Amino acid sequence: MAVIAWIGLGNMGGSMSVNLATAGHEVRGFDLNAEAVAAAEAGGVKPAGSIADAVAGADVVFTMLPKGEHARAVYLGEDGVLAHADTRTLLVDSSTIDIASAQALHDAAAAAGFRFVDAPVSGGMSGAKAATLTFMIGGEAGAVAEATEYIRPMAANIIPTGGATTGQAAKICNNLMLFINLASTAEGAVLADRLGLDKQVFWDIASVSSGDSWALRTWYPVAGVVPTAASNNDFAPTFTTELANKDIGLAISAARDTGTPLEIGEHVQQLFQRLIDSGKAGMDCSAIVKLVDGTLDS
Ligand code: NAD
Q1: Is 6 close to ligand 1, i.e. is its CB under 6 Å away?
Q2: Pick the CATH number of 169-293 from 3.40.50.720, 2.30.30.90, 2.60.40.1570, 1.10.1040.10
Q3: Which of 156, 116, 150 is CA-nearest to residue 133?
Q4: Which residues does the UniProt record annotate as the domain 3-hydroxyisobutyrate dehydrogenase-like NAD-binding (predicted)?
């Protein structure tokens, strides 16, 4: 069994690291948030006092952090991974970050003699808990193959995407589609209600019809229909509006770089921005339904 360092024990990283511990690995977790550390500890992860403590003697380091700036700080900072890990340690970043940051991490890791892959995930908090995530992995083929073996206990699908940063490219495009689907699901759900349809009856129809999507089946924004949905829980976050806005912003920025018009994506970003401006940045992103059903002030 391997020694695994895990940095970033939040909504996703908490469950993912616990699944590796459950698989029998020694997992050493580090997070700035004491509550996140305690929750992972309850699942079998050993708390580490610093990044240096977590990575000492590790076979592999996983990171699951909010944004590119956090990933850069954790890998490149004075107290960071590259400064303290041994170069035999494989480095796997599963955060969703901008391509420029991902490329900077690949370059810095290679210059320091490390194997590094970008390995973002899809499947949400429910997929992280159930160990059914899809991983998309970019990097040198040997490092991707090595990472695959460590990833298995967390994943239903592991898909190599090509060279450095292609995992992030796949993830950014996937999430552009996810958030557009989420916005359209919110509109369909509220309109169905106003037309007098029972919420369960409408969901039963849409989920086996052409309106189906992962957002509909996992994040349905009306309470009492889908067990994994944050709508059942007053929109307590499984994926915050702030992170959703970040992801759709990554797509828009990549689209600008490539001359790709994203008219729908840009509109959905404006919707997330309105939610954030109303003080809902920390709420689940499926609260986008509030812009449709008129409950923005609640
Ligand atoms: P989160 O905010 O719940 O967790 C991030 C954790 O990183 C927090 O606990 C935070 O304290 C920690 N952290 C930040 N800076 C740190 C540092 N310097 N050192 C140690 N810990 C640090 O976010 P999340 O929902 O778990 O998402 C993590 C990443 O996964 C994001 O990039 C997100 O876009 C992506 N993602 C999220 C989901 C989802 O459904 N939540 C799904 C797929 C991918």
Answers
A1: no
A2: 1.10.1040.10
A3: 156
A4: 166-291
Amino acid of residue 24: G
What spacing in Å lies between the alpha carbon of 44 and ligand 1's midpoint?
19
The domain 3-162 having CATH identifier 3.30.450.40: the answer here is no
What is the distance between the alpha carbons of residues 298 and 288, in angstroms, rounded to a whole number? Answer: 13
ipTM of the complex: 0.99
Determine the residue of 6, 7, 9, 12 to mutate for testing ligand 1's pocket, defined as the one with the most ligand atoms within 8 A of the Cβ atom.
Answer: 12
Segment 113-135, tens digit of pLDDT: 999 999 999 999 999 999 999 99
Compute CA distances 287 → 31, 57, 240, 292, 296, whole Å. 27, 43, 9, 10, 9
Tens digit of pLDDT for each residue in 158-170?
999 999 999 999 9
Q: CA–CA separation, 162 vs 110, rounded Å?
A: 17
pLDDT digits (tens, 9 = 90+) for 227-268: 999 999 999 999 999 999 999 999 999 999 999 999 999 999
Quote the pTM value.
0.96
> Is 249:266 a contact under the CB 8 Å cutoff?
no
Which has the closest alpha carbon to 135: 100, 96, 107? 96
**DSSP classification of residue 7:** E
